[in-house]
Specification:
With 156 residues, the chain is of the alpha+beta class. 37% of the residues lie in helices and 22% in strands. It has six helices and six strands. The chain has a six-stranded antiparallel β-sheet. Strand 2 and strand 3 form a beta hairpin. The radius of gyration is 19 Å and the shape is globular. 26% of the residues are buried.
Length: 156
């Protein structure tokens, strides 16, 4: 019985140790979220429905966008996922970058990680074949799943 209690206590301690690693999900303006992410935002789009900035830090490059509505955010993500990449999603904001950058940002901003479609799969399925047609000579992005291409798009 004592061993069971000890095991349960140890399990709780392990969970307590993991809990502080993820902060409360950030909220606020693009500038406020960028500040929490330790980014000096380079504003690319400044519209009523979406504000978007490019960020470059020691962790890497990513795009940070805020939205006027939750619906606008969800519609944008649903379309953007076709390009691949990793998305850190908060309430009315998203950060887009490679897996490592998104993981680092999650430690600062909280949020939920979502991933887009996988590209450059070598044609092992219909989605991979379709995504690679006519792309000979365009594989120079290091198999990053389209992140380099995606981050250059006007995401409005």
């Amino acid at each position: 019985m004592a061993a069971l209690a000890l095991a349960l206590t140890a399990g709780c301690a392990a969970n307590d140790e993991e809990a502080p690693k993820e902060p409360k999900t950030a909220t606020g303006s693009l500038e406020h979220i960028a500040s929490q992410a330790k980014c000096e935002p380079n504003i690319q789009t400044d519209a009523e429905e979406i504000r978007q900035a490019n960020c470059t830090t020691g962790d890497g490059k990513y795009v940070l966008a805020t939205f006027a509505t939750d619906r606008g955010l969800r519609e944008w993500i649903n379309e953007a996922k076709d390009y691949g990449g990793s998305y850190l999603v908060g309430r009315k904001w998203v950060a887009v970058g490679d897996d490592k950058v998104v993981a680092t940002l999650r430690g600062r901003l909280g949020g939920t990680v979502e991933t887009g479609a996988t590209h450059h799969s070598g044609g092992s399925d219909d989605g991979g074949k379709e995504g690679n047609e006519g792309n000979e000579g365009k594989e120079g992005n290091g198999g990053s799943g389209g992140n380099e291409e995606h981050s250059g798009h006007d995401m409005s």
